[in-house]
Design goal:
two-stranded antiparallel sheet, mainly alpha, 415 residues, 10 helices, 2 strands
Length: 415
């Protein structure tokens, strides 16, 4: 009887363990889907999703989207070269050239140096699979929620801008047809300035070309802003892991056995997170340098276009310039705030260790605390070109410089 009872008891324990294991497995699968599925839906088609199979098919997707972004930069360049644009269209051309160039740069860069993103995203997968503390899981979910919010708002607004750029020329064309304007009197305005490049095609294909160019600028926006979302989301995840490590340092119990092994495990975790952060900082350094330069110029020029559009009361130009300004300003804001957040979290590791009961540690272990404090005095941060730290101070400086140049430009041209 006793043997039978013991057998039933073991079977019950095994069933409970299986249920708990299944629930845990479903939970981390839900967490991974919550954090990464939207990113995969956007970045897999352009061939830069870090957890994909890097084969010929992913390369073809990357090449196709890069080619589309190249067209967005090439067509306006040809229009400027052939002198087929006025002052207002020149500004639109410059904006599209910059957007297409940034899309090509980011897609190519993230594809060539994909190893940094692969390491970080594989680490994020392990983090979700091994988390077992409710509070730590809440921290990870919170950062994933922030990432999803950034991702969705940035892409939705970008696609809204693409839709606006696509609708305005078609509406103007239909209005011209309604008033029976002849082809000689009608000036065709394409989504991407390309009137001279497409003048040999019949006017009946105008709507088709507008739809094709709308798809092109949508893909170019995906290569630009989608890559930003891919990078910023994993950076936020690393920030969440640093915050979890800070809490572990503060709550470190110095009375339990094997104190050295447990504290050394935290130190190894700190070193590992520094390595992940350094990978991300090295990856984005050159891209950020180019992006900051381009955004600084575009904020000035598009601001001038917005002021000019207000003066001449051009509603379409006001809407387009405002959307573009908000998009590029949002890019700059996100990089600055997340870069500042990452830097502050790395610095506060030292404060977290100081708030622990380090004074009760063994002497050999207490000496290790000094090295960690020294490390946190020069934390890893996102930098543009390895010399411009991306934080709120840089953000304010860029805004001040751009608006100063805008004021000079407005006064010089008398607008």
């Amino acid at each position: 009887m006793l043997c039978r009872y013991s057998k039933l008891h073991h079977q019950l324990l095994a069933s409970v363990r299986l249920i708990i294991s299944t629930m845990a497995s479903e939970r981390w699968k839900d967490d991974i889907a919550y954090a990464m599925t939207p990113l995969k839906l956007i970045t897999w088609p352009i061939g830069v999703w870090p957890l994909q199979v890097y084969n010929i098919y992913s390369l073809l997707r990357c090449v196709l989207c890069t080619f589309c972004a190249c067209l967005v930069a090439i067509l306006p360049s040809l229009e400027i070269y052939m002198g087929c644009t006025d002052v207002g269209q020149n500004i639109d051309c410059l904006m599209l050239i910059c957007c297409g160039f940034l899309g090509v740069l980011k897609t190519t860069w993230f594809r060539i140096y994909a190893n940094s993103l692969i390491i970080n995203y594989n680490s994020a997968l392990r983090d979700y699979q091994t988390i077992d503390d409710t509070k730590e899981r809440d921290i990870m979910r919170k950062h994933a929620f922030i990432g999803r919010t950034i991702f969705s708002s940035l892409l939705i607004f970008a696609y809204f801008g693409c839709l606006m750029f696509g609708i305005v020329p078609i509406l103007n064309y239909n209005m011209s047809n309604q008033i029976n304007m002849t082809n000689e009197d009608m000036t065709l305005e394409y989504v991407i300035p390309s009137r001279c490049a497409l003048k040999y095609f019949p006017t009946s294909m105008y709507t088709i070309f507008c739809l094709i160019e709308t798809v092109l600028i949508t893909l170019a926006s995906t290569t630009n802003f989608g890559n930003d979302a891919l990078f910023l989301n994993i950076t936020l995840h690393v920030c969440g892991q640093i915050k979890i490590l800070r809490i572990r340092f503060i709550n470190f119990d110095d009375t339990s056995p094997r104190i050295c092994d447990r504290f050394n495990a935290l130190i190894e975790r700190h070193r590992y997170l520094i390595t992940l952060t350094r990978e991300l900082a090295n990856l984005i350094s050159f891209v950020l340098l180019i992006e900051l330069f381009i955004i600084s110029i575009l904020l000035c020029i598009m601001g001038f276009q917005f002021i000019y559009a207000l003066k001449v009361n051009d509603t379409a130009m006001i809407g387009k310039s405002l959307v573009v300004q908000i998009l590029f300003l949002t890019q700059l804001t996100l990089y600055s705030f997340i870069g500042n957040y990452l830097k502050s979290e790395m610095e506060e590791i030292g404060l977290s260790i100081y708030q622990s009961t380090w004074y009760n540690f063994p002497k050999k272990l207490a000496r290790n605390v000094n090295f960690i404090l020294l490390q946190t005095k020069s934390p890893i941060a996102l930098q543009a070109g390895n010399f411009i730290v991306i934080n709120l101070s840089t953000y304010v400086s860029i805004l001040k410089s751009s608006f100063s140049y805008l004021s000079v430009l407005r006064i010089t041209l008398g607008v």
